[in-house]
Write a structure and sequence with these properties.
With about 120 residues, this protein is mainly α. About 80% of the residues lie in helices and about 0% in strands. The chain is built from six helices and no strands. The chain has helices spanning about 1-15, 20-25, 30-60, 65-75, 80-90, 95-115. It is elongated. The protein starts with a helix and ends in a 5-residue tail after the last helix.
Amino acid sequence: FLAGFMVFGFVLIYLRDFAPGREAWAAAYAEGAHFEARLAHAHGNLFALINIAVGLVLNGRGAMKFSSQISWLALGGMLMPLGILGELTLGLPPVFVLAGGISITIAMTWMGVAVLTSRNGS
């Protein structure tokens, strides 16, 4: 996911600096498709990094209770940036954005509680 959203960043650079109609694209910096594309790029990279951090924390804590569920919920958070792209490109409803946001929020809360209440990494 991280590599994919990084490549998407290069696509945004192309659209801003090199593509035909780049002036119109740059002029719409804070609205419409440009704004949503930037939103997807930023959240995609952030959530991919969060997923890496979750994996490192869960791996470092050993066989922590609920590790698998927390990991899957964090991965489910990727529905948010993918949902933003789906809205932008396919006109999908925002249900995926909401599901991803809720999923990653639950994962972070659950992981925080699990880490704080676990003893000696178990």
